[in-house]
Amino acid sequence: MNYKKILVVLPHPDDEVFPMSGTLSKLVDKGTHITYVCLTLGEMGRNLGNPPFANRITLPLVRKKELEHSCEIIGIQELRLLGYHDKTIEFEPYGPLDKRLLGIIEEVKPEAIFTFYPGYGVHPDHNACGAAVIRVVQNISKQNRPEVLCTAFPTDNDLGEPEIVNEIGSYLEQKTACLNAHSSQFRIPSKNDDDSTEYDTFMERIKTERFWIYPFK
User: Quick one: pLDDT band at residue 196, thresholds 50, 70, 90?
Assistant: First the structure.
C-alpha cells in the first residue's frame, strides 16, 4: 500500500483509531500526505470520561482537542472539521454535503479515500458518511477516480475477505497512544501481572486492520 496523498473521511473524532490508526501511521512513515475530514465533533457521544470529566457543554471542545492529539500521534498533516451535528449525517440533504465533499476531493486530489463501507458501519453516521463518499466518487470519471478503501464492522460480515489486511504490530504503540488520546471515550484494559488475559486479548484484536476496496460498477 503506497500512496502519495490520501483523504480520510469519517464522521466522528476517534473513528480513526480502531480501524485504521496503525495503517495511517505506517503510511505517514512512508511519506504519504494525509488529509483527514471529520464531519462532526461527536457532541452526542455516550461517554463523558471515566470517571466523568466533561459535560454536554464541554464535550465538543474536549473531543476536538482529543482528535487533534490523535492526529499528531499518527502524523496526519491536515485536519478539517466540517461542523455537522453528531447523529444527523443520515438526514443531511445529499446535494450540499456531496458538493462539499466533491470540492475537497477536487482540491486534495487523493489517490485513495478511507471511509466506512456503507451498510456495514454499525452506526448510522458511519453508514451515511460512507454512502456520501461513494455517491460522490462514483460520479468522478474512471480515469480520475480515487480508490476507496472501506472499513467494516463486524469483520466477519458477508462482504467476503478484505482485499487488504494490515498487521500493524510494530505500530501498536501509536495505536494505543491514539486510544489514550481519546480518553473521554476509551479506556484500555489494565495490564495486571496476575491476570493479563483481557489486556492480551485486546492487544491481539487491535493489531490487525482490514480494508475492502469498494467495487464501483
Answer: confident
CA-based torsion, 182, 184, 185, 188: positive or negative:
positive
Instruction: Quick: pLDDT tens for 67-93.
Output: 999 999 999 999 999 999 999 999 999
Residue 151 DSSP symbol: E
The pTM score is 0.95
Q: Which residue reads 462514483 in cell numbers?
A: 138
CB neighbourhood size of 106 (10 A): 11
Cα gap 61→67, rounded to integer Å: 10
Question: Helical H runs in the chain?
Answer: 17-29, 59-74, 94-108, 124-138, 172-181, 197-206
**Under 8 Å between Cβ of 137 and 113:** yes
CA 39 from chain centre, in angstroms, equals 11
SS3 58: coil
**Going from the N-terminus, what domains does the chain have, and what CATH number goes with each?**
5-213 (3.40.50.10320)
